[in-house]
Amino acid sequence: MTLPSAAEVEHADWPALKTFATGLGLNPKGRSGLVRQRVLDHLRTQPRGPEWRAGKAEQAALLTRIGAAAAAASLWESTITLDAPAPWVGLGTAYAKAGRIEEAVKCYDRAIGMGDAGARLHKANALMQAGRSDAAASEVDAALVGNPANVRAWAMRAVIAEADGDPERVHESHAKIADLGRSRLGLAKILMRAGRFDEAGTALEEHLADHPDDAVAWNQRGVCLMKRGQWREAVEALKKAAALRPRDAGVLNNLAVALASADRLGEAMKKLAAARRIAEDPRIMLNEAALFEREGALPEARATISRVVHIVPEHPEAVKAWDRLAPGRAAPRMPSAAPAKAPKQKPAKTPAKARSPSARKSRSPAKKRATSRPAKKRTRAP
Amino acid sequence: MSGPAPEGDRFLPSVVTLEATMRAGKQSLADGRLGEALGHFNAALKLKPRYDVAWIARGQVLKLQGEFKEALGSFAEALVLKPENEEAWIALAGVLHRMKRYREEVEAYDQVLRLNSRNVEALINKGAALHALRKYDDAERCYDTVLAARPEYAPAWNNRGAALLRRGKVEDALASFERATRLDPDLFDAHVNRVFAWQRRGKHGHAVIAADRALALRQPPWLWTLKGLSHLALLESSLAARSFERALELEPKQKQAHEGLRRAKELRKRVDLYRGAYECFGTFEAGDPGCAECEIQARCVEVTR
Hints:
- The complex is a heterodimer.
- Among the domains of chain A are: 6-45, no CATH class; 56-116, Alpha Horseshoe (Serine Threonine Protein Phosphatase 5, Tetratricopeptide repeat), CATH 1.25.40; 280-331, no CATH class.
- In chain A, helix 11 runs antiparallel to helix 12 (185-193) and helix 15 (231-244) packs antiparallel against helix 16.
- Helix content of chain A is 64%, strand content 0%.
- Chain A has helices at residues 6-11, 14-23, 32-45, 56-66, 69-79, 86-97, 101-113, 118-129, 133-146, 151-164, 167-179, 185-193, 197-210, 215-227, 231-244, 249-261, 265-278, 282-294, 298-311, 316-325.
- Chain B is mainly alpha-helical.
- The longest helix of chain B is centred in the N-terminal third of the chain and has 19 residues, at 13-31.
- Chains A and B meet through helix 3 of A and helix 7, helix 9, helix 11 and helix 16 of B.
């Protein structure tokens, strides 16, 4: 147990005091004053462990993370030694955050030269930031030559390939990550994007076998099943996702769509209402309007669509629905903001007079006693 | 005409010898070789009879040897040579204290305070001497002067409390001892004085706690006896007997402990309260959360007066 401070013990209430005493292996029974004294005595006699203080490297890492790049860079510089690549990586990251990509790349090169293969990925990141995706890709490939099981490198390769618009390489990278036994979610996403829902479903099933609490995967699986027309299974999958993430409007919307497709309109309406309460998203409102229309509640459908048009006037689906639901009527416009009335000005209070500080007599500092020795004699009462 | 003295011969031979002798004397004194130290300081005084530092050092050795009269003479010589020497006055007063010549001791401290009215050591020792002379008011004034300058000085709080206790101001005395133990939790005298004060107030539960804290620092036999007496008052005959037995182990001829043990054994035939894990037995405080949860509350209330 970490020792509490004396001040904490002095001000602790009774339950806290008992916890301190028990935690320190002391007798927690008795009058509170005595228990407090017992803990304080223990603190006094037990040596405190060495206090941890952030070193320069820790401070620099923190500054890098919070974005004070210049200060971080100067701190990183002060931690550099001849044989440690980590400060060079830190310095490079600070430069990259400051937008000084060339310096960052040089720093990463120094770290790579010292044998830090991980620095290649940092370098690739910096190069990507500078828009040099080819150079970034070759750095990642070089990292993968050294360590083909580097999942982070494969993930970065996928990101670079996606930025380059190369779906084959994206798929290949995610497939490799899946083969390495890490995550199949990325692969499933790519497969779904390619319209290969059967394969995506299999990947998701495998992923969910290892990660049963992954709400995103359950949501993806629900979508995948919907695409395959398996509405009942989709509803089950999406219900699991919604149970794991009850405040996710996207999941609730998907669940509503699945329910509506399974002809459970009442439940679907409830889910959409819940989703709308969380986020007034045009997609959710369009689905809600469609359901109203399907149920013949045209005024409600019109009101919902009018809200969508109000928020996103150029949304083609919303415009089309408006034309269908209210033919010939002009789309609702945003009301022009009424000029705000100027508030009545209150007469300004006269500011309180600044009191001149009373003159303080300067005192000469107390003279230091040349020697102060403890008294030898002490008195005992009787 | 002779040239400059070679390196290493800067002083006259006698001065070099004097310094070496003083150094050797101080080293012997530090090592506890008192006879040797005295020889060195005597030798130094042969080389330079009007050397006040050597007289003081000689006096210190004699005092440690228990030769108070000679020590007194030695310090007096130092003061003849240099009457403004505070160290010599304090040393002189120290010997007078050992000789129980408290009135003269107070005068010696007055001399020091005339030279330096803020000398804490002189003030607190003067207070102790006045305490010994039963001039508790004057003693308290000395401690107050010390505490005005150094409020963190625990022994001054303890001595002030002792003076107050003598004047019957038990509550104020307890507050002073409390301050002393807070400032220096290892101040044995303050814990012991708390035992006396609590016993004076008839609060034997508190007295036992204070005695336990003092006994954790030092275990004189009379303190075990004091603790035993408080246990007796709390009707804890077994604990009382154990305390008296411990006192007798350390000093078999202690009359009070013998008497206490006899009373404890008699009491055990009638009653023997058991405090268990409750160190605070006999200090019941209404409204305290710890007391509210206590399993032996009824008995504690019974013995808390």
